[in-house]
Amino acid sequence: MRFDPARASSRDTYYTMISTIVPRPIAWVSTVDPAGRPNLAPFSFFMGVTSRPPTLALAIGNKADGGPKDTARNAIDTGELVVNVVPVALAEAMVLTSGEYAHGESEFDLAQVETVPSERVRPPRVAQSPVQFECTVHQVVPLEDAGQVTSRLIIARIELIHVDDAVLDAAGRVDPRRLDPLARLGGSHYATLGDLQRHSRPKV
Predict the structure, then answer these.
(1) Full DSSP string of 146-181
(2) Which partner from 29, 41, 75, 159 sits 20 to 30 angstroms from 152, CA to CA?
(3) Quick one: three-class SS letters along 98-153?
(4) Which helix (H) or strand (E) holds 56?
(5) Residues β-bridged to residue 131
(6) Is the Cα torsion angle 32, 35, 36, 41 positive or negative in sign?
(7) Peptide bond before 53: cis, by omega within 30 degrees of 0?
């Protein structure tokens, strides 16, 4: 099969991409609006960018009505966000927060997700997340199609990382099996780590 995005619908292109760029880590992003109302939503067009300076990035598409999603709007308006790692144990709660709810409605309350205060930014952290990245917005890149902004690439500086001691090994490194992260596949499918492999880089 050959897939030409220029000849396909944006919907078909989206499903082809999310079904083939797999597995993807999930950024469970907490933000607050200028009035201090919290929001929580997952995004899987997400990646680490560099460790110097510590930076991550996520792309957030528009809502069905064409406007920016609350996460993007809040991050842009306040300049702050928290990226929480999703453990398998919180899969159902995470999926529940992916709905397109009314602006100002708290997904934390809806999904009964416990919060803890952040130290350097205003958005709260997900208490049961094993890793939480407190971030400030470094840059927002609007992405356009046919002259319209369809999504926004948010590049964020990591200000503080919280790691649960329970996911560390004896050497103080994160053990992926203890971390037990959930990964996004296509459609309604998700994946766990499964069997781990170890491959050492060549010494040249």
Answers:
(1) TTEEEEEEEEEEEEEEEE-GGGB-TTS-B-HHHH-B
(2) 159
(3) CCCCCCCCCHHHHCCCCEECCCCCCCCEECCCCEEEEEEEEEEEEEEECCEEEEEE
(4) strand 54-61
(5) 163
(6) negative
(7) yes
Of the chain, the percentage scoring pLDDT greater than 90 comes to 92
Question: What is this structure's pTM?
Answer: 0.95
Token couple for 111: 């999904």
The contacts of residue 201 (CB under 8 Å, 6+ apart) are none
Average pLDDT of the chain is 96
| Spatial contact of 45 and 57, defined as CB atoms under 8 Å apart | no
Nearest to 42 by CA among 53, 58, 54: 58
Domain limits, the chain: 25-185
Q: Are 98 and 42 in contact (CB under 8 A)?
A: yes
List CB contacts of 133: < 8 A, sequence separation 6 or more: 56, 82, 83, 84, 158, 160, 161
Q: Please state the rounded mean pLDDT for residues 53-72.
A: 95
**Is CATH 2.30.110.10 what the domain over 25-185 is classified as, yes or no?**
yes
